[in-house]
């Protein structure tokens, strides 16, 4: 308690099977007159949107759909969604889908009420006005975007992912329904689940972690580490899906307040330049950054191993910390997620450029428990190659 810590999260969270059916009532509580649903073509094809439509129709609330969201969305995508929102005169946005749809919903909300180019909002606390009210409904157990004040977009010109961080990005309501993840392919379950686990690990190790964020992060690690294999191997298992959804939510609450670190900083240029899924790029870098960071907080890494169910009581903190890294490596292998840059087609010649890109992500590197210089970044990418 030697420093003052701020703790924030989404004001209203509905968690549980069938909670998506409450969307109409929640929209009414926000006094909505016309709704824009932001989603992606895959969600439409999977038929997931039907429950949302029926719920809105049951309260006679008109809506329009923008389904142009893409993975790791470019800035141009949000420009199109804002155009549709303004043309239709909407007063409530529902973000429905994976993290990309939720992030586009959040950014669309603030661009309706804040004049100027989107470039002026990248960074921390640069959004002057609150946005249009937003309800977020994740269909993956991964990003935790429904409880974070952060949105990430791809800048294709700079080949880098950029973030907007502002309390105006918190939605009014998050609806977290595990049923929506039942049809996810195993690979998506793996990538998004590892993303959630990474959020928990990084927020726990962050220099801005507090007792409050540690509570959420440790529980998220327990839930994800014990349920991700089952959700991957048997996607119809409701208990595993529910525990993963809760783990993702708790990890989101933790990192919204403590921040993530070098894993994400190193993953961003990988995604920005080579267009790889965010969960995959995090998994690629996770064990190597963990191993580098151990010296910054060995006791915390040993506690992670404990949360993963590893028997570390008789081990030193350093040995227990190494057990945590080995657990993550085994989990990645079990989920068939690549662990080497060369396995996803990244040439060795790209390493110095990637290191330069990672060093630009100062917002996240500032949270990391161990300082990283450019030569360290090159060495870490080389170890991951």
Plain-language structure description:
- There is one protein chain.
- 51% of the residues lie in helices and 11% in strands.
- With 385 residues, the protein is α/β, with parallel strands linked by helices.
- It has two domains: 12-180, Rossmann fold; 182-384, Dehydroquinate synthase-like - alpha domain (Dehydroquinate synthase-like, alpha domain, Up-down Bundle).
- The strands form two sheets. It has a six-stranded parallel β-sheet, sandwiched between helices.
- Helix 6 (186-205) runs parallel beside helix 10 (278-293), helix 7 packs antiparallel against helix 8 and helix 11 (298-307) crosses helix 12.
- The radius of gyration is 20 Å and the shape is globular.
- The model has no long low-confidence stretch (mean pLDDT 96).
| Biggest sheet statistics | 6 strands, parallel
CATH superfamily placement of the largest domain: Dehydroquinate synthase-like - alpha domain
Give me the strand/helix succession. EHEHHEHEHEEEEEHHHHHHHHHH
- In which order are the strands of the major sheet placed? 1-9-6-4-2-3
**CATH class label of the largest domain:** Mainly Alpha
Helix content: 40-55%
Uncertain runs: none
Strand proportion, as a percent range, falls in 5-15%
In CATH, the architecture of the largest domain is Up-down Bundle
Radius of gyration from the CA trace?
20 Å
Mean pLDDT: 96
The total beta strand count reads 9
Question: If you consult CATH, what is the topology of the largest domain?
Answer: Dehydroquinate synthase-like, alpha domain
**What's the shape?**
globular
Note the total helix count: 15
